[in-house]
Amino acid sequence: MEIPAIPLQNPSQVIDRGQKPSEAGLFSAFTSYISSYAAGDPPEPSDEELESTLCTVDCVNACYMGDVFANVVNMPVKSLIPLVSALLAELPDDPSSVIISVKSENDNQSPANGQKPTSSGPVYDPAMVYLLELCTVLALRDEETVEGLGAAVAGALQNVMRNAASFHSILISRTMFYLLHLLHASYVSANL
């Protein structure tokens, strides 16, 4: 008896893994976790990525990061000023100097199996959002930190807003929120 031939069907979804740098550090795993919220449908993680994530979770748990951040938040203002200055120095002054994306030879191909084409606009950078939020939280701790750190943080936030066309819309909306929150805190602080 002969077995009838069954025609092969195209897969319903193709996962394009592309070429990624092999970063397995704590910060890259953290930003990867944050950036997954900005992507529509992120690709399925590889076994290596899962293992790196589990190692990162174990590392973060062993370091008691909650205690570290609690100590940072409670530092005196004189100690916070150089910390916030160093964090703000990591932000790009000129958004055109930021490398937005790297094109591979696969970028010219059309999307497979009805997948959405990738946008050509600015790419979401979770590290930048994290730095801006951390600096804003530190500046908003109390009246003394608003006075000591508020101007520097507000300047960095305003720099992002001046170059809004160069950044992702999520970054712009978060930056505006931080800027308005800082403005409100400085207004309340000035009227006390």
**SSE sequence, one letter per element:** HHHHHHH
Average pLDDT works out at: 76
- The amount of helix comes to 40-55%
**Amount of beta strand:** under 5%
Rg computed from alpha carbons, rounded to a whole number of angstroms = 22 Å
End-to-end separation = 92 Å
Main β-sheet, in a few words? Answer: none
Low-confidence stretches: 99-105
Total helical segments: 7
Tally the beta strands.
0
Shape: globular
| Class by SSE composition | mainly alpha
Folded structure, characterized:
The chain is mainly α and 192 residues long. The protein has 7 helices and no strands. Among the domains are: 33 residues, no CATH class; 99 residues. Helix 4 packs parallel to helix 6, helix 5 packs antiparallel against helix 6 and helix 6 runs antiparallel to helix 7. The longest helix has 22 residues. It starts with 25 loop residues before the first helix and ends with a helix.
